[in-house]
Amino acid sequence: MMTTGTAEPRGQALAINNLSLEFPTFSGAVKALDDVSISVGKAEIVGIVGESGCGKSVTTMAATGLLPKGRYRVTGGTVRLFGHSTLSMDDSQLQDLRGKVVSTIFQEPMNALNPTIRIGRQLTDVIMRHEEVGPADARRIARDILADMLIGEPERVMNLYPFELSGGMRQRVLIAMAFSCNPGLIIADEPTTALDVTVQAVILRLIQNRARRTGTAVIFISHNVAVVSQLCDRLYVMYAGRIVEHGATRTVLETPQHPYTQALLRCLPERVAPKQELEAIPGAVPNLLQPPSGCYFQPRCKEAVEQCRSQTPQLTGADGQQVACWRRGVAVELPEQGGRR
Amino acid sequence: MAITRIIVPRLILLLFVVLGVAVITFTISHLIPGDPARMIAGDRASAETLENVRRNLGLDRPVVEQFTIYIGNLLQGDLGTSLRTNRPVAADIRTFLPATLELGTVALFIAICLGVPLGVLSAVYKDGPIDQIARTVSVCGISMPVFWFGLILIYVFYAKFQILPGSGRLAMGIVAPERITGFLLIDSLLQGRFDAFRSALYHIILPGFVLAFANMGVITRQIRASMLDVLQEDYIRTARASGLRKGMIIFNYALRNALIPSITLLGLALGDLLYGAVLTETIFAWPGMGTYVVTSIQTLDFPAIMGFTIVASIGYVLINLLVDLAYMLADPQIREV
User: Fold this and answer.
1) Which residue of A5, A172, A240, B83 shows the fewest CB atoms closer than 10 Å?
2) What's the CA gap between A21 and A36, in Å, rounded?
3) Residue numbers of A between 97 and 136 with CB closer than 8 Å to B
4) Who's near A142: CB < 8 A, 6+ residues apart?
5) Does residue A301 form part of some domain?
6) Residue B42's CB: how many other CB atoms inside 10 A?
7) How far apart are CA B226 and CA B265, in angstroms?
8) Among all residues of chain B, which has the CA nearest to that of A60?
9) Which of left, alpha, beta for A74 (phi over 0: left; psi -120 to 50: alpha)?
């Protein structure tokens, strides 16, 4: 069951507008995010894709106040999370929101649970933090949600320590924890990257099904386009701290317009005929201490022209598909060999 | 049961440790120059008197026989008779050991109660003013010699301002409570002797603090380092992402894990306390094992020195056993396997 097309959202779960953020270092400021805008409707499932280090996690961690205090500087933009301006909130206000309004599932399930505390206690700690329930009710809630994550014998699992569980089981526990207080938004930050391929699909479906059933909005963050493409209503493609393309999942996948998106898709084995060599994107992500002029992708782009080097392209286009590229659409028409260097 | 699996081998090991220590101390005591018979009989004793003393002590018999007798007695809990006090060494140790244990316990208590919170605060507010102060204090604690720091405290609090007593366990004129545990603080409370309790408490503050100070520095550093490690862990990020309160994250989620690598250190600290007690007791005229051993060494009281060495080595083995049991308590991965 593919769900594509933008569901018309009544109100926003998350609205990030023109967010720019940098990390001061001894050798200068690293511009981690540049004018990033992302919106997620209530009950909508949205994907953010891009290479490692392109700013996917930084965006959502900034929005939920999880970046280390004092190590970063917001240089512009706003964040509204269900109406709360999280950028100007203090620690204790943020802690009231996290877990209750927004939850995050991280990628390394092996270390994401406390090794010295039983599973049940870790779940009930979160539940009792946000809900007005006693220990017995919290345990019941925890047990139900574990069962919902297809964990057999939830009572037994709750009495175990994390090291007694497999990676897949731990990730289910973490998903259960994320959903336990019925947040309006779940951020799944590479939730299956560390897991066996056989377990990945199951885990992703668990998140998707529960979210659809409870009307929870989800942001899937991944470097793997194939993973998110099956789950998300809309996709954002990030490159070097900027959004380069955005649109309904099917549109972006079928008619990618940014050369970076096209290159990403050409890296997927599924999309290449058997025995044909897989493509890799030449070059590396730019150093954000000294970013290239104009379009950040220009040094690696086969289509780049003079304008790409001198001017920064803005996201333009109708709501269905927006692209930040001076040569938008060119590569789709042109045969690959025809690209100018 | 996992617990018996740990305890039983240790107790068997303990026997060998005691035997080994007995061999070493016995050998050393016979290699070291100095004639115990002359120490007892005095400089001007005649050769005949010396011979008599030797015979009474059994020093005229072959070395191997002396050793067998010694081990045989040891196994019955008989550590021999002190040359100096003429009392059984075991009885002497029973008299003096509780004072040292009391001092050590109080010192360890102070060291943990100050060191752990200081280490935690230092890590949580890394590079802030609290961290700078904590680091300075712990470097001072580690590098200041006990005898120097002890004398400074005596000078300031006893000689100069006369706030606290500087020697002994009880003030003159206060009758010691009847001996139950040998810990004055406990015995006086058990008997409702609040005057004695107050006096004992005042007397233990300075030596307790001096003895605690160095270990506090070590504990602060260790807790700070392991807290910094743990606070980087993914599970702390999970706890923050699920909105748990800061206090809960620090004390329930982080400290619990940070304590595991610190347990070994606490074991070592206990050992350090035994050694530090020798110096501290001498400075504060604390009537404990430290003072007893120093005097025994000065008078070449071999049975007493050997007895103390054996008791101390048993103590070390037991401390190590405690460390292992504490690991099991703190780390479920060790407990449940």
Assistant:
1) A5
2) 9
3) 97-100, 103-104, 106, 108, 111-118, 125-126, 129-130
4) A120, A123, A124, A127, A154, A158, A176, A180
5) yes
6) 10
7) 12
8) B241
9) beta
Residue of A nearest to B253 (CA): A114
Contact of A39 with A12, CB cutoff 8 Å: yes
CA distance B322 to chain A (A): 20
For the record, the structure tokens of B175 come out as 């009758």
- State the average pLDDT for chain A: 86
Q: How many CB pairs under 8 A join A and B?
A: 83
Nearest-5° angle of CA B228, CA B232, CA B237? 135
Contact status of A67 with chain B (Cβ, < 8 Å): no
Per-residue pLDDT tens, chain A, 341 aa: give them: 333 333 334 578 999 999 999 999 888 889 999 999 999 999 999 999 988 888 899 999 999 999 988 889 999 999 999 999 999 999 899 999 999 999 999 887 788 999 999 999 999 999 999 999 999 999 999 999 999 998 889 999 999 999 999 888 999 999 999 999 999 999 999 888 878 888 888 889 999 999 999 999 999 998 888 878 888 999 999 999 999 999 999 999 888 888 888 888 887 776 666 777 777 777 777 888 888 888 888 888 887 888 888 888 888 887 678 888 887 755 444 334 333 33
Residue with tokens 């059994």: B58
CB-based contact B244 A126, cutoff 8 Å: yes
* Inter-residue contact B285 to B168 (CB < 8 Å): yes
User: Measured between beta carbons, which residues in chain B are less than 8 angstroms from residue A66?
Assistant: 237, 240-241
Q: Which structure tokens are listed for B280?
A: 């501290």
Note whether residue A295 is domain-resident. Answer: yes
Cα–Cα nearest to A245, from A14, A50, A22: A50
Please list, in sequence order, all residues whose beta carbon lies within 8 angstroms of the beta carbon of residue B167, skipping any fewer than 6 positions away.
Answer: B284, B285, B286
For β-strands A321-323 and A102-105, DSSP reports them as unpaired
- The alpha carbon of residue A2 is apart from the nearest alpha carbon of chain B, in Å, by 30
Residue A340 lies in a domain: yes
Give residue A53's region: left, alpha or beta (phi > 0; psi -120 to 50). Answer: left
Residues B108-146: tens digit of each pLDDT: 999 999 999 999 999 999 999 999 999 999 999 888 888
Count of domains for chain A: 1
Q: What is the end-to-end Cα distance of chain A in Å, rounded?
A: 41
Host H or E run for residue A142: helix A135-148
Contact A7, A76 (CB under 8 A): no
Cβ contact, residue pair A113, B238, below 8 Å: yes
Any domain includes A149: no
Task: Express each pLDDT in B65-78 by its tens digit.
Answer: 888 888 888 888 88
